[in-house]
Design goal:
Layout (H helix, E strand, L loop, with lengths): L1 E3 L3 E4 L1 H13 L3 E5 L2 E5 L2 E2 L4 E5 L3 E5 L10 E2 L7 E2 L2 E6 L2 E7 L2 E3 L6 E3 L14 E3 L5 E6 L2 E6 L2 E3 L6 E4 L2 E6 L2 E3 L10 E4 L2 E6 L2 E4 L4 E4 L6 E7 L2 E4 L2 E7 L12 E14 L2 E7 L3 E13 L5 E7 L3 E14 L3 E4 L5 E14 L27 E18 L11 E12 L15 E12 L7 E8 L4 E6 L6 E7 L10 E4 L2
Parallel strand pairs: 1-3, 2-4, 3-6, 4-7, 5-10, 6-11, 7-12, 10-15, 11-16, 12-17, 15-18, 16-19, 17-20, 18-21, 19-22, 20-23, 21-24, 22-25, 23-26, 24-27, 25-28, 26-28, 27-29, 28-30, 29-31, 30-32, 31-33, 32-34, 33-35, 34-35, 35-36, 36-37, 37-38, 37-39, 38-40, 39-41
Antiparallel strand pairs: 8-9, 13-14
Length: about 500
Amino acid sequence: MFGAVGDGLAKDTQMIQKAIDECAAKGGGTVYFPPGTYLTGTLVLRDYVTLHIEAGAVLLTSTDKEDYLIPAFYEKGLNPTTFPVLIYGKYLSHISITGRGNIVGQDKLFWTPKETIGEGWNSTPPKYWPKEWRPMMITLDGCSNVLIEGITIEQSPCYAGWLIDCERVHIRGLHVLNDFYGPNTDGLHISSCRNVHISDSHFVNGDDSIAIDGDGSGPAENFTITNCTFESSCDAFRIYTGLDPWMHNESYGVVRNISISNCSVHNAAGVINLVAKHGLIEGITVTGMTIRMAQEGTPIFILAEKGTVRNIQISQITAESDGACTIIGNPGAEIEGIRLTNIQFNIAAKKKIFGLEVPDPLEHYAEYHFVPYFIFLRHVREVSLQHVSVKWLKSELPESWPALKAIDVDYLQLEGFSGKQKGEEPAMPAVWLEDVKEAHVIGCRALRGTDSFLYVTGSQTESILLSNNDFRHAGSAYTLDSKTGVTGKVIQMSGK
C-alpha cells in the first residue's frame, strides 16, 4: 500500500498514525510525506512500513508532553528506564525511514539556558540545562531489518537515534545536525545491537556522535562504520560497557567485532574512546582516519576500569590535537593485545589537569579530556607501536615531558618510533620505561635535540632489547635509574 499524508500545522499525529496503521493492515508499504511541515508527537511504526520523508518535508516535534508515549526500555535487564520518543518501534521487522526531508526537534524549547557556563569536565561544556522532559527523535527496541537512509535529523533535544537490541541495521546518508553545546545531543546511541552498517553520514553533536554499548540484553557485535564525517564537543566514537546514567546495577556487557574505516573528524574532544567499566570489549579495528581537534582532549583513549579490553588495532591515522594516546588498565582489570600502526600525532599542547601524569586509578572515565599530552601506557600487556611518530607543535607550556611513557607494561614492542622530548629539560628522555618487562625497541630513530633516547627505571624492569636503532643524534642511547635497582643487565643490544 502507498499512503500520503496532507500538509498542515495543526497537530498531524493522528492523521499520520492512521496512515501507518492502514499501511500495515494491508501487508505493509510506504507512508509518503510530500513537501510541507507536519507537527507531531509519537508515531508508532509497524511491520513492513516505510516512512518516506520527501525533500522539503519537515516532521516537527510537538512540545506538548501529552502527545508522547513514554515507553520502558531495558525491561529484560537489571537497569530498566523510560523515555519519551518521537518515532518509535518495538519488536518490529522490515521498517524503514527514508527520503531527503528533515526531522526537526525544536531543541531549545526543551532546554533552559545556563546563567553561567564555568568550567566543566567537558572542554566544551553544555550551555543549557534539560527541562523536566524531552523526547528522543528515533527509538527502536528489539527490531530487525532496519533501514534509515538519506534523512536529516536536526535540533534534537536529546539523542537523534537510539537503537536497543536490534539486528540487521543499515544506516546510510544520514545527517545529524544538533547543537554543539546542547546537553546529551548524541547522534546514534546503539545498545546491544548486531550486524549494524553505518556509512556516508555526517554528524554534528553536543555529545557522542556514535556510541556503542553492550548494556542491553545481549552483546553488541558485528559493526561496520565507514565514510563518515564528525564534529562533536565530546567523542566521535564511544565504545563502552556500563556507563549510562540509569545504570543502578553493574552491567557486564560485551562489545566485539567493530570495524571503523575512512572517516574524517573536523573537531572533537575525543575520537576513539573505549571504556570497559565492567564486561568485555574486544576485536575493534580502526583504520584510515584524519583528525583535527581544536579543543581539549585526546584522540585515542582506552580504559579498563573493572572489565577487559583486548585485541584492538588502530592504524593509518593522522591527528592534530593537544594530546596523543592514553591506554590504562586497573588492578583487577585487563588491557591486552593493543596494536598502533602508522600513526602521526601532531601535538599543540594546551594546559590540562593531568597533562603530565594520570592518577592511579583514574577517578572518573570522563576525565579522559584531561589526560597527558604524550603517549601514556599503564597496566597493559602486549602492546605494539609500529611506525608511530610524535611531533610537538608550538605551545606556550614551559614543562618538559617525554614522547612516550610506559608504566607497568608487559611485552612492549616499539618499532620504527620517531619522537623526542618536549621542552628544554636536559634530563627528559624521548621514551620513559618504568617497571616494563620484555620490551623490544627496534628500528627507532633519535631526532636532533634528543639527550637520552631511553630512560629505564623501576625495580620490576627486566629484559629491554635494543635492535638496529639509529641513535646518532642522541646524547646517549639510554639512561638507567640505579636508585630503583636498574642495572645494565636489563639492557641487551644487537645490530647497529
